[in-house]
Amino acid sequence: MTHDGRSLYLQALIALQQTSEDELLSWFQIAGIHGRPFIPWDGIEWNPSAPEVGYCPHSSVLFTSWHRIYLALLEQVLSSHAQHLAKTYNSTTYQIAADNFRIPYWDYALTPSMPDIVDYPQVLINTSSGPMNVSNPLLHYRFQQFPLNETLFPAGESGEGCLTTYNTTVRFPVNGVSNCDSINANLQGSNLKANTYSVFQTRDYNTMATGTTSNSAFEYAHNQVHHTIGGFNTMDPGHMGVFAYAAFDPIFFLVHANADRLFALWQAMNPTSFLTPDIDSTGTFTNVVGGNLTVDSPLTPFTMVNGSAWTSTGARDLVGLGYSYPEIMDWLPISKDDLAKNVTAAVEWMYGPST
Ligand SMILES: N[C@@H](Cc1ccc(O)cc1)C(=O)O
To answer: How far apart are CA 80 and CA 23, in angstroms?
Structure first.
């Protein structure tokens, strides 16, 4: 990311976090799609036969495709803030940075330590009126309405510890204070690189997409990252450790953008393998436990401009979504076979066992 891009990204995050929590496209409501509050977003109603949880599928073959569209929503909203901000500079370099805006990822497999920036209280950015130190929007989200609404965020729920008592998101809280050094030490000990590499050995989409108990799915290492940043303490977890609260923490999207990148690398290596029907063992806000999940299952609550639901078919191809990753040079005139070979080589180089 260029310096200009970084300034726009941080300011776009600030603008989003400052958008009123009453707005559909606020940080609060976008994060709220994932878990609490368990209320409809964009008019997509709860299915009374489904569990009372968030819309996010976990332990489900929709895990990878659903989170891809979730990231696309965030990118679209941040990008419109970036466009707006770029106009205030009256500079072509900022306009170019806004036109090329993409959300960043943190490669937790290659660098099992949180990016330094997520722990800075303040960041120095170039605003249109000059350099300025501002509160860092990657450190935490500060809830605008605090105390939280007790009906939507009930206290004392099992597994949710003290999360209703914090006015900002926290990571590995000890007496309410985040503990990043301990998180980084624990990340180093989590075998994230080997657990990521092993997923590239499978050729079956469903095996790659979901699985919480074995390292043949990207979900597994991703869960380790959630738990580690959450802090393992089930009596007093941080937001990232709990489905219902995880997406409020800004690091959530850095983690998920990388899970999406790993998913995209795998797809480039296995272009013909795709989702096969599977039974939903966990359910979501709209999906009943025991339902059949297919490539056409709606990825609720996300709808396209024409009003139809996003599905895993729509999420399959990055080109249609308007982005790619450095290792997937699909914009070059190259066959799918050659692309698969290049990406395989990149994966070996990055995550393979060192000799
Ligand atoms: N609770 C998850 C960890 C996790 C937390 C939040 C998430 O959004 C995702 C995963 C697990 O059982 O492993």
So the answer is: 15
Q: Which atom of ligand 1 is nearest to the CA of 35?
A: 8
- pLDDT tens per residue across span 57-79: 999 999 999 999 999 999 999 99
Q: What is the ipTM of this complex?
A: 0.91
Ligand 1, residue 34: give the atom nearest the CA: 8
Cα–Cα distances (Å) from 143 to 27, 230, 318, in that order, read 10, 18, 33
The reply to whether ligand 1 has any atom less than 6 angstroms from the CB of 227 is yes
Q: Which atom of ligand 1 is nearest to the CA of 159?
A: 1
262-315 pLDDT tens trace: 999 999 999 999 999 999 999 999 999 999 999 999 999 999 999 999 999 999
> 188 CA distance to ligand 1 centroid (A)?
19
**What's the 241 CA to ligand 1 centre distance in angstroms?**
6
Domains of the chain: 3-351 (1.10.1280.10)
Give the Å distance between the CA of 242 and the centre of ligand 1: 6
Q: Is 241 in the pocket of ligand 1 (CB under 6 A)?
A: yes
Indicate if ligand 1 lies below 6 Å from the C-beta of 36: no
Is the full-model pTM beyond 0.95?
yes
